[in-house]
């Protein structure tokens, strides 16, 4: 059996492409690519839950936990090492998602969506009322360090971009492996018929719990990378509008491949930039029209266009 499938090879090839773009693109566009990678991990978390028929309107909870872990580590403990921060964020996220998972794994459809939204909004309210953490304004983060190395200025930005690219693509490869594995097959079966999954001897509740914790962990990693790139955190990371944005990305991009939410996040960021430029006062309407057209004409998302293109190319190849 091949160690890497086509998707994983594509993700590996994407790393040198991103590094080339780092030096070829203007700084403002590089910043959008970097921010999109952090947010793309959260969209990826939403996507894998959608494969089980679960729509999370509260993924901003773990996005925010990752960001605020980075901020609080530097603010209160003077920790700026990104590897230490990532470990702390993962530990905190696993603990929180492990506890909440016992509640959420029993619910499906609108109940799951509303419960995830509720717990995210609780964190949003707590952070918004905390004067020690900057209330609604949040607070700034220092530039990241790396195992005792403290690069500054442009060098620091370059190193952080490359690390963000490596971690994002590595997470995508691991998630692709997960979806190809036993639990990955079970979660798709849960979406189709949960009762039959139980009859086959697998626990739907345990599978959903594991899925929820994995989605939470990669969302927290995305939150750390996003906040370190921007150098600032605010309670808006946990707000329902932020979580809704991740759902928007998955609907726009589709759930057919782990690549889809990563690319979809960048498309949304670029679309939003030009929508604001074209119509500063009604740019939300442009995004709404795009979502409406996507749902009507591309119910499986933009990734379905790529799949059709690949199938058409393969059908034109001459037989050996």
Compact description:
By secondary structure, the chain is mostly helical.
Please describe what this structure looks like.
This protein has one domain. It has helices at residues 6-24, 27-50, 60-77, 82-104, 109-128, 153-180, 182-192, 194-199, 204-230, 240-253, 259-278, 283-297, 303-316, and strands at residues 139-140, 232-233. Helix 1 (6-24) packs antiparallel against helix 6, helix 3 crosses helix 4 and helix 6 packs across helix 7. A two-stranded antiparallel ribbon has the order 1-2. Helix content is 75%, strand content 1%. It is mainly alpha-helical. It is globular and about 50 Å long.
Low-confidence stretches: none
Question: What's the tally of helices?
Answer: 13
| Largest sheet, strands/sense/barrel | 2 strands, antiparallel
Percent range of helical residues = over 70%
Topology as a string of helices (H) and strands (E): HHHHHEHHHHEHHHH
- Overall pLDDT confidence: 89
Using DSSP, what is the number of strands?
2
- CA radius of gyration is 20 Å
* Overall spatial form: globular
What distance separates the N and C termini?
23 Å
């Amino acid at each position: 059996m091949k160690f890497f499938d086509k998707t994983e090879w594509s993700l590996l090839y994407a790393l040198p492409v991103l590094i080339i773009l780092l030096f070829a693109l203007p700084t403002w566009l590089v910043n959008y690519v970097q921010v999109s990678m952090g947010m793309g991990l959260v969209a990826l978390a939403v996507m894998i839950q959608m494969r089980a028929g679960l729509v999370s309107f509260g993924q901003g909870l773990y996005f925010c936990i990752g960001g605020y872990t980075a901020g609080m580590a530097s603010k209160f403990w003077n920790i700026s090492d990104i590897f230490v921060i990532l470990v702390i964020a993962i530990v905190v996220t696993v603990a929180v998602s492990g506890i909440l998972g016992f509640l959420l794994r029993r619910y499906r459809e609108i109940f799951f969506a509303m419960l995830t939204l509720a717990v995210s909004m609780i964190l949003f309210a707590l952070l918004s009322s905390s004067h020690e953490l900057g209330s609604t304004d949040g607070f700034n983060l220092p530039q990241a360090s790396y195992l005792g190395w403290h690069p500054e200025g442009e060098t620091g930005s370059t190193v952080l971009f490359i690390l963000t690219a490596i971690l994002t693509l590595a997470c995508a490869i691991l998630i692709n492996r997960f979806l190809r594995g036993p639990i990955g097959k079970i979660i798709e079966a849960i979406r189709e018929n949960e009762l039959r999954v139980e009859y086959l001897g697998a626990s739907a509740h345990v599978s959903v719990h594991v899925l929820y914790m994995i989605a939470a962990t990669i969302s927290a990693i995305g939150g750390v990378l996003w906040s370190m790139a921007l150098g600032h955190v605010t309670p808006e990371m946990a707000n329902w509008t932020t979580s809704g944005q991740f759902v928007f990305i998955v609907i726009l991009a589709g759930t057919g491949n782990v690549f889809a939410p990563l690319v979809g996040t960048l498309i949304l960021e670029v679309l939003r930039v030009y929508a604001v430029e074209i119509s500063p006062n009604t740019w939300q309407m442009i995004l709404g029209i795009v979502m409406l057209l996507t749902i009507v004409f591309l119910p499986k998302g933009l990734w379905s266009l790529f799949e059709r293109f690949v199938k058409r190319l393969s059908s034109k190849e001459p037989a050996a």
